[in-house]
Amino acid sequence: MEKGVLKAAGGMNGQAWNVVGHTYVPKLLTEDAFVWHATIPDGTFVPPHIHPTQDEWIYMLDGELEVEFPDAHARAGTGDTVRMPRGIAHGIFNRSGKTATCVFGVSPARALYELFTELDGVTDPEELVRLSALREVDFLPPPDAA
Description:
six-stranded antiparallel β-sheet, 11 strands, Jelly Rolls, mainly beta, globular
């Protein structure tokens, strides 16, 4: 990690990614942690998935998100912190009617930075699932259509 200040509007190396319709701007990357700013439009989501090797968290800056765990659903608003331990499935949904902004982090960093670089602009769900599995993010199969 380099010392100094990364300005609010900037991402590392000028980067910003479009991942599942969200804008992710990388802010910090070390072996131990990866942190990014996220802009999450209303009506978008990250399907349920598992990080088997990383703990993940979200600090809400503005707006509201719903986080679905296998045994619980939670709503997070401005100032709240969502904790998603490694190995526990979670899905993240914006059903609030407005854009949400937040800061995400994972520890350890593992290969999530590289994954977001690969997923930038990917719109095919099967390709997203395939690439993610190569980088230790396992998406759950969709529920059966009954």
